[in-house]
Amino acid sequence: MKQLVIQAFGDADQLVQVESASAPLQAGQVRVRMHYAGVNPIDAKTRAGLGWGAQAIKDRLPWSPGFELMGSVCELGPEVTQYQLGDRLFGLVSGGAYSEEVVVGEHELLPVPSSVLDEMAAGVSLAGLTAWQGLTEHGKLQAGERVLIAAAAGGVGHLAVQMAKNMGATVVALGSVHNHDFMASLGADEVLDYRDAAQMTAMAPVDLLFDLVGGAAGLSLLSHVRPGGRVVTVPTITADAVIAAAKEKGIAATGMLKRNDNEQLAFLMQALAEDKFWVEVSQIYPLAEGNLAHRQIETGHTRGKLLLMP
Ligand SMILES: NC(=O)c1ccc[n+]([C@@H]2O[C@H](COP(=O)([O-])OP(=O)(O)OC[C@H]3O[C@@H](n4cnc5c(N)ncnc54)[C@H](OP(=O)(O)O)[C@@H]3O)[C@@H](O)[C@H]2O)c1
User: Of 17, 20, 66, 275, which has the fewest Cβ atoms less than 10 A away?
Assistant: First the structure.
């Protein structure tokens, strides 16, 4: 089976397609034929050797990226009780989704209802859990509050806008002008260009900042949080600096690392099936062109989600 791997950390061209042997199935495992794999910034950061992800795999190269998987069961291992051949599944895996086939324990993935498109299911697990946990568990967003979402047009942000609206919040969405119609279509109450100083100065203070940009941008957005307000800063590499600056201003601050949670994934899938939100897929790349997908995600200006297909 074809698989994208890196032999060493480096730029996007480190991703090369290889032919790998299919591992035999153990008890309770299924083989999933990948329909789509989600591409996330963590994939590119880890490939480049940055952050906690790279630390975790540095002694295990070659490594195949990809945490977001959607596919169908193509082989059943012994003692599998939950699934049948052809069942459509989605969820988070611990790497290796950039592969034609992935071996998973039958309890690792969840079923996709027939009414939900493959592409929607492929893009929801990592980005959706981050948006949901960020707004609810870490941000404690309440109905009637104002939330500022930075990077509102991106993979996590476009889901967060829709979820925050569903929770009854007033959503202020930050993005480039060419994304303003898109962000309004997600339900944002106010859409602002983060490069427009006048627009930014005129913004009324918010209760919660959901910072998906971090770094200098995250630091400067703290001035828009009301005294006693809250910030959740999501990019881990700059989280300590944003949290320290927030605390100096009397803002309650937290970083986060999304965790896998099958109950929450089932809840998000049900919400997708009921059209409570949707996943915007801006581009699908063939597996062999994973390097192009990484170059795009590394621009920091992707709308919605990118997917790979075999
Ligand atoms: N800690 C965790 O567990 C966790 C989980 C998921 C993601 N993350 C991190 O969270 C961040 C966001 O992830 P993502 O998947 O949503 O990324 P993404 O899809 O690559 O985000 C792209 C978006 O960022 C926007 N953007 C870029 N610079 C901006 C700025 N200065 N102000 C406002 N918006 C800006 C772009 O908007 P325009 O094109 O309109 O400029 C674009 O729509 C990444 O750093 C990722 O690694 C962390």
Answer: 275
Which residue lies with its CA nearest to atom 34 of ligand 1? Answer: 151
- Which residue among 212, 299, 306 has the greatest number of ligand 1 atoms within 8 angstroms of its CB, and so is best to mutate? 212
CA 85 / ligand 1 centre spacing (Å) = 37
Report the CATH architecture of 2-123+279-309: Alpha-Beta Complex (3.90)
User: Any idea where the domains of the chain sit in the sequence?
Assistant: 2-123+279-309, 127-255
Contact (CB, 8 A) for 88 and 110: no
Which residue, chain included where needed, has tokens 């009397």? 250
* Contact in structure between 255 and 234 (CB atoms under 8 Å): yes
**Antiparallel, parallel or unpaired: β 29-39 and 305-309:** antiparallel
pLDDT tens for 259-275 read: 999 999 999 999 999 99
For 95-141, the pLDDT digits (tens) are: 999 999 999 999 999 999 999 999 999 999 999 999 999 999 999 99
Helix (H) or strand (E) holding 157: helix 157-166
Q: How much is the pLDDT for 73? A: 98
Q: Is the CB of 264 under 6 A from ligand 1?
A: no
From the CA of 300, how far away is ligand 1's center (Å)? Answer: 6
Q: For the chain, which residues score pLDDT lower than 50? A: none
Distance in angstroms (rounded) separating the CA atoms of residues 308 and 63: 17
Answer yes or no: CATH 3.40.50.720 is held by domain 127-255: yes
Distance separating alpha carbons of residues 297 and 245, to the nearest angstrom: 28
pLDDT of residue 124: 97
Query: In whole angstroms, how large is the CA radius of gyration of the chain?
Result: 20
What per-residue confidence (pLDDT) applies to 275?
97
